[in-house]
Design brief:
- The structure is a single chain.
- The chain folds into 2 domains: 56 residues, Orthogonal Bundle (DNA polymerase, domain 1); 248 residues, 3-Layer(aba) Sandwich (Rossmann fold).
- A hairpin with a 2-residue loop joins β11 and β12.
- The strands form 2 sheets. Strands 3, 4, 5, 6, 7, 8, 9, 10, 11 and 12 form a 10-stranded mixed beta sheet that branches. A two-stranded antiparallel sheet has the order 1-2.
- By secondary structure, it is α/β, with parallel strands linked by helices.
- The radius of gyration is 20 Å and the shape is globular.
- α3 crosses α4, α7 crosses α8 and α10 packs parallel to α12.
- It contains 12 helices and 12 strands.
- It binds guanosine-5'-triphosphate and magnesium ion.
- Magnesium ion binds next to α7.
Length: 324
């Protein structure tokens, strides 16, 4: 299969292609999902030209139009389940973390969101018969909490549990980490991720997992005060749609984290609320609420899913990783 380049799109000459790339639109997929205004502004072209280019990119990338039910069914047939390595957790998820879906993990500080993310970054690389997706992972790290040392320990743990000597250096090589310095940068990194996923698509380690840890921290820090909430919501929605598209295009699971603050003074309802309200409520497909329990135990509750009953699973966060 020959890759379609920006230059191949009607209306895009070498100069425009250069401008698009400079603005971060490196692939036809990135162009296909842009809005005309956005493209016009960043690439300094007219809005009607931008709209034409976007249409051409959509056709070339085969996205953006309607899908018939049988097409959706075909795509859904590819859905993979990534094992968490924990029996109860997997069962609650109907087998594991689904590809082509966004799974949100929310919980207080220290509830284990980053630990689960690290464990999934390891598990996704395992062969299918070991519950993995034989893939690589892209991690957008907004809080500088990625720790290669933890990956090593977790690979060691899995080696012991599986009785197979896995090489932790190989695992580290298949984790592509990018620091996001602010919310705009974070959004742009999804485009870079598409580019990378494109490059890895036909290799023996295609991208099968995208992690954004934390999805919301930058947005919270940058958008404070009532007047800016709508702006924040709009930006976050756009980001989430970009992530959903990433999952669909590359048959990848998408896992995002969201911190919440405990409110022990709340008498009614859930004492734990996301700091900025339920900003993700309707966009994430699966929502997992993580809670600390005794010692290294964590309670993970499935609170929202399109096709699974709500439920709870207990896991342990140990030096060797996430275990039953
Ligand atoms: P925030 O990002 O602050 O919202 O928290 P989080 O939900 O991401 O928490 P995280 O996953 O970082 O969990 C931190 C907790 O995991 C620690 O308090 C420890 O209990 C546990 N943990 C982290 N590393 C290790 C380790 O190497 N060994 C063991 N046994 N536990 C660990
Ligand atoms: Mg964390």
């Amino acid at each position: 299969m020959t890759e379609i380049l920006l230059e191949d799109l009607p209306g895009v000459g070498p100069a425009t292609a250069e401008k698009l790339k400079d603005a971060g639109f490196n692939t036809i997929e990135a162009v296909a999902v842009a809005s005309p205004a956005e493209l016009a502004n960043t690439a300094e072209i007219g809005e009607s030209t931008a709209a034409k280019i976007i249409n051409a990119a959509r056709q070339a990338a085969d996205i953006g139009g309607f899908e018939t039910g049988d097409m959706v069914l075909e795509r859904r047939k590819l859905v993979g389940k990534l094992s968490t390595g924990c029996v109860e957790f997997d069962e609650m998820m109907g087998g594991g973390i689904e590809s082509q879906s966004i799974t949100e993990m929310y919980g207080e500080f220290g509830s284990g969101k980053t630990q689960v993310a690290h464990q999934l970054a390891v598990n996704v690389q395992l062969p299918r018969e070991k519950g993995g997706s034989n893939g690589s992972v892209i991690m957008i790290d907004t809080e500088n909490t990625f720790r290669p040392e933890r990956i090593k320990q977790m690979v060691q743990g899995i080696s012991e549990r599986h009785g197979i000597e896995y090489d932790h250096d190989e695992f580290l090589k298949n984790i592509h980490v990018a620091r996001a310095y602010n919310s705009n940068h974070q959004i742009l990194l999804v485009d870079s991720a598409m580019e990378l996923a494109n490059e890895l698509k036909d290799t023996d380690k295609p991208v099968r997992l995208m992690i954004v840890d934390s999805l919301t921290a930058h947005f919270r820090a940058e958008y404070v005060g009532r007047g800016t909430l709508a702006d924040r919501q709009q930006k976050l929605n756009k980001h989430l749609h970009g992530l959903q598209r990433f999952g669909d295009l590359y048959n990848s699971a998408v896992v995002v984290t969201n911190q919440v603050m405990s409110k022990p003074d709340a008498f009614f309802g859930d004492p734990t609320r996301p700091i900025g309200g339920h900003i993700l409520g309707h966009t994430a497909t699966f929502r997992l609420y993580l809670r600390k329990s005794k010692g290294d135990k964590r309670i993970i509750r499935l609170v929202d899913s399109p096709n699974l009953p709500d439920g709870e699973a207990i896991v342990s966060v140990t030096t060797d990783g996430l275990v039953d």
